[in-house]
Amino acid sequence: MAAQIRALVSGQWLADAVRNNLVGPKLRILDTSWYRYLPNTKRDPKAEFAQKHIPGSSFFCIDECSDKTSAFDNMLPTSSHFSQYVGKLGIGNDTHVVVYDTSDFGSYCAPRVWWMFRTFGHSLVSVLDGGFKNWLADGYPVTSEYSKPETLEFKATANQSWVKSYEDILENIKTKQVQVVDARSAGRFRGTEPEPRDDILPGHFPGTINMPFPTFMDASGKELAPDALSRLFKEAGIDLEKPLWATCAFGVTACHVALAAHILGHPGVPIYDGSWSEWFKRASPELIISEGEGKKV
Fold it and tell me: CA-to-CA distance for 4 and 184, rounded, in angstroms?
C-alpha cells in the first residue's frame, strides 16, 4: 500500500503494474500533457495521445478541467466540475492515480494535476518520475489503443487554503509573512526574456525568490534526490520549516515547487492560481519589478 501514496513512482514500477494488468478502477494513468504556452511549441497533445501513450492511460485536459467563467487561464475548477471530470476518467476516491506528461523536460505540467488532485482531497496520486520521455528511453511499451473507462463516482473536498489569490499576494507583500517562490526561468523573472503571451510583459512581484522549475530535475528529467532538493531550497534561502507559497506564469510549473517540498516532508505548498498572468494585468506599476520595460502607468 505504501507505493500508492508515494509522490513519485518509477517507470519500472508502472511498467510492472501495466504488465500485471493492474490498470483499472484501483489504478488509473493519466496523460496530462498541456503545451498551450510553452514557447515555440506547436504540439497537439490530444493528437499525440491518439498516436501513442502508456497502455491503459486516459487523457486529462487541463483546459477542459478548469474554471471556464474566469478571465484567466486554467484556473482551478469547482469541486463539482472536478468530481464529474475525473469520475468520467474512471477515477473514484480509492483509485491510485499516476500522472505523466510528454514534455522534453521529463515533467512539465504533470505536477499541476498532481497538485489539483491533492487540493481536491485525493492523496492517492503520484507523478511518473521522468515522464513519458524516460518511459520511451527505457523501452517500455506504448500503444495507440484506447478504451474509455467506466465512469465512477468521485467526491472532491476542496482545500481552499492551498489556493492563493491576487489579494493574498498583495497582503503578503505588506506583511512579508510567507516566502514565495517563482518557478519561471531567470530571464522571465528578471524581465529580460519575453513571456509566452504577447499581452503580458515579464518581471516579478516584490519579495519573490526565483527557482526555475527545471532545476528540481536532473539532466534526464527525473526528480533530484531528496538531499539535492534540500540543498536547492537552502541555497535559494528558503526555510521549509516556514510557510511557503509558489507562483509562475499560469499556476502550472509552480506545482514543481509544491512537489519538491512535499517530497521533503512539507505539509503543503499553496499555489497562487492566477500567477503572473493575473498579476501583470491587475497590479499597479510599482508592484512590477523588471529589468526590462515594466508596466506603463
Answer: 30
pLDDT tens track for 177-210? 999 999 999 999 999 999 988 889 999 999 999 9
Active-site position among 61, 65, 109, 248: 248
Q: What are the grid coordinates assigned to 60, written together?
A: 486529462
Task: Verify whether residue 248 is a known catalytic residue.
Answer: yes
Report the alpha-carbon distance of residue 209 to residue 244 in Å, rounded: 11
Cα–Cα distances (Å) from 61 to 30, 89, 132, 234, in that order, read 10, 11, 16, 35
Q: How far apart are CA 171 and CA 135, in angstroms?
A: 43
Residue range 232-282, pLDDT digits in tens:
999 999 999 999 999 999 999 999 999 999 999 999 999 999 999 999 999
Q: Which among 87, 21, 16 has a CA at the least distance from the CA of 58?
A: 87
